[in-house]
């Protein structure tokens, strides 16, 4: 048994933590904590929830899996305290979510402000449009968007929480801290990710001291949903390496 290791699974913007329920099934020997940010009314609450989840770990070590917004929360946590982190698996991540004078590949910040205004009027339409962007053309043709929409259902998180998530994405900036994250970081990005484009992951991989970037062709922003078996194999293959190294260190 490997109950001395806890998996922390951080979800993305607007998506409940239950998105991980099927994904954790192939890892029965680990403890798991599933976290979303759909009850966080402001940016500080998002950070605090991530920090609280981290502090609640009683295991001797942890593996963090973060997707989209959740991957950015994971990076901030690692920059503050990485003593227990055995490895990080970041999906659909980026060095910076919004574009700026030094990074031209992110989202236009004006689009986030527009989304915040629309959330007050038509939250269902905002989420529907966002969900549509998460899948590649071939994934949509294969019916993954329809499956996702059925899974998500009609329940909508509180508008304040959705706006807080957009604010978090807009302000995320830790360029001067990436070099401090001295743990294995495995990045997975879809080549057709329109939410967090590939270039953002490539730059992030360059800035992290111990990063490995994997790119899947014809895949969008939700690779664990459209290719669950491959996603499990991706984690397991790297998990074997880091856990073996951890055991070797303990025997010295």
Automatic annotation (TrEMBL):
InterPro entries given in the database record: AB_hydrolase_1 (IPR000073), AB_hydrolase_fold (IPR029058)
Xref: Pfam families: Abhydrolase_1 (PF00561)
Transmembrane segments: none
All residue ranges annotated as the AB hydrolase-1 domain in the record: 61-228
Name used for this protein in its record: Pimeloyl-[acyl-carrier protein] methyl ester esterase
The species this protein was found in: Thermoflavimicrobium dichotomicum
Lineage per the UniProt record: Bacteria, Bacillati, Bacillota, Bacilli, Bacillales
């Amino acid at each position: 048994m490997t109950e001395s290791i806890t998996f922390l699974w951080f979800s993305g913007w607007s998506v409940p933590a239950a998105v991980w329920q099927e994904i954790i099934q192939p890892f029965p020997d680990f403890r798991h904590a599933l976290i979303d940010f759909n009850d966080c009314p402001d940016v500080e609450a998002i950070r605090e929830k991530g920090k609280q989840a981290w502090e609640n770990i009683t295991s001797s070590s942890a593996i963090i899996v973060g997707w989209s917004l959740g991957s950015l929360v994971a990076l901030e946590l690692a920059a503050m305290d990485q003593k227990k982190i055995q490895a990080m698996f970041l999906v659909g991540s980026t060095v910076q979510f919004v574009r700026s004078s030094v990074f031209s590949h992110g989202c236009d910040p004006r689009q986030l402000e527009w989304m915040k205004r629309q959330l007050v009027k038509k939250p269902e339409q905002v989420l529907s449009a966002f969900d549509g962007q998460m899948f590649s053309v071939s994934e949509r043709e294969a019916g993954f968007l329809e499956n996702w929409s059925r899974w998500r259902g009609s329940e909508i998180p509180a508008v304040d929480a959705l706006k807080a998530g957009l604010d978090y994405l807009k302000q995320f900036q830790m360029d001067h801290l990436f070099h401090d994250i001295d743990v294995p970081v495995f990045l997975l990005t879809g080549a057709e990710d329109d939410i967090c484009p590939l270039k953002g992951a490539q730059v992030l991989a360059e800035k992290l001291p111990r990063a490995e970037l994997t790119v899947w062709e014809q895949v969008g922003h939700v690779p664990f949903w459209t290719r669950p078996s491959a996603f499990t194999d991706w984690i397991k293959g790297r998990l074997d390496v880091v856990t073996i190294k951890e055991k070797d260190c303990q025997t010295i």
